[in-house]
Design brief:
Layout: H1 2-20, H2 28-32, E1 45-50, E2 58-61, E3 67-70, E4 74-77, H3 83-95, E5 104-110, E6 114-118, E7 124-126, H4 134-140, E8 152-159, E9 162-169, E10 179-182
Parallel strand pairs: 6-10
Antiparallel strand pairs: 1-2, 1-5, 3-4, 6-7, 8-9, 8-10
């Protein structure tokens, strides 16, 4: 009986240690992307202003395939571009037989949403605003449930076309399109 209890305890300890080994530290690129200029993605909405061209000045959405449908020139690639790169792209296309010297300005009108899941009051999709942290996103989603692990959360983020997941503290900043997962605490 004593050896069975010892064997059972050893199995429990081994199980707990194996469960902890699945954790990987947050990749370096995960935080480096925070210091880079914002790159557009599907779901973003931009305000394009073409000086002295009221018919072209409007708000446009980046579609699921990463393009912006712009009058006269058609589809303009936007995914992965900064606002300044998109300005240049639109101006270059307008220069090709439409306008002599277009003056184009692009500003972000609405960012793509974030998603909050797991042990929160109201999981779902929420609007992103600049300066949003994990803690603020959880507050918007109804706060932690009584079972929530309040120390750290998992964030899934698209970095240069590669989807990465990392464990961060609640004071970390979020980016548009991030998915926050609040885990259940063990005890």
């Amino acid at each position: 009986m004593k050896s069975t209890a010892s064997l059972f305890r050893a199995f429990i300890v081994l199980s707990l240690l194996t469960g902890c080994s699945s954790y990987r530290p947050t990749p370096a690129a995960f935080h480096e992307v925070l210091d880079q200029p914002y790159r557009l993605g599907a779901g973003d909405r931009v305000r394009v202003t073409v000086f002295e061209q009221d018919g072209l000045t409007n708000t446009y959405s980046v579609d699921q395939s990463g393009y912006l449908s712009f009058p006269l020139v058609g589809a303009v690639p936007a995914r992965g571009h900064t606002a300044q790169q998109l300005e240049k792209e639109i101006a270059d296309k307008l220069r090709q037989g439409y306008l002599r010297d277009p003056d184009v300005s692009v500003e972000i009108d609405r960012y793509r949403p974030i998603f909050v899941m797991g042990e929160v009051g109201a999981a779902g999709q929420y609007s992103y605003v600049p300066g949003l942290t994990v803690q603020k996103a959880i507050a918007i989603a109804g706060g932690f449930t009584p079972r929530a692990n309040q120390e750290s959360v998992d964030i899934t983020r698209d970095i240069n076309g590669k989807v990465m997941t990392g464990r961060v503290v609640t004071s970390d900043p979020l980016l548009p399109g991030d998915t926050v997962y609040v885990r259940e605490r063990l005890f």
